[in-house]
Design a protein that fits this description.
- With 120 residues, the chain is of the alpha+beta class.
- The chain has one domain: OB fold (Dihydrolipoamide Acetyltransferase, E2P).
- The protein contains 3 helices and 5 strands.
- A 5-stranded mixed β-barrel has the order 1-2-3-5-4.
- It is elongated.
């Protein structure tokens, strides 16, 4: 249990200390930016990531092939780069996409294959 200064037994002071301790630990996401995030839930129905915001962000992908790719490439705990589509939806969660990150991964793989074939 957390200990608080005993010089002031005012409950409001204890609450102020708690709030100060945990203030500004969240990231404010902006539409269009790319941020690192950790996958926290990975199912065919829902993909959630922790990007440091107040709540977990929802990965919004409508293309079933992209969802299948995400499911095959990643696992819970993996760090990915997401694009912010909506910093805060009506439900209070950020909405993000992995589409650009998947494209970058594919491009990096092609570049590696090309370098490998040039060296042979």
């Amino acid at each position: 249990m957390a200990k608080f200064s005993s010089t002031n037994s005012n409950p409001q002071s204890a609450m102020a200390q708690l709030l100060a301790k945990h203030q500004n630990k969240f990231v404010t996401l902006k539409k269009g930016e790319s941020v690192k995030a950790k996958i926290t839930k990975l199912t065919h129905n829902e993909i959630l990531v922790d990007a440091g915001a107040k709540t977990e962000a929802v990965v919004m992908e409508r293309d079933k092939r992209i969802i299948a790719t995400i499911m095959s490439l990643f696992k819970v705990g993996d760090t990915v780069e997401v694009n912010v589509l909506n910093p805060e939806s009506e439900s209070g969660q950020s909405v993000v996409s992995l589409r650009r990150y998947l494209g970058n991964l594919a491009w990096e793989k092609l570049e590696a294959l090309q370098k490998n074939s040039e060296q042979q």
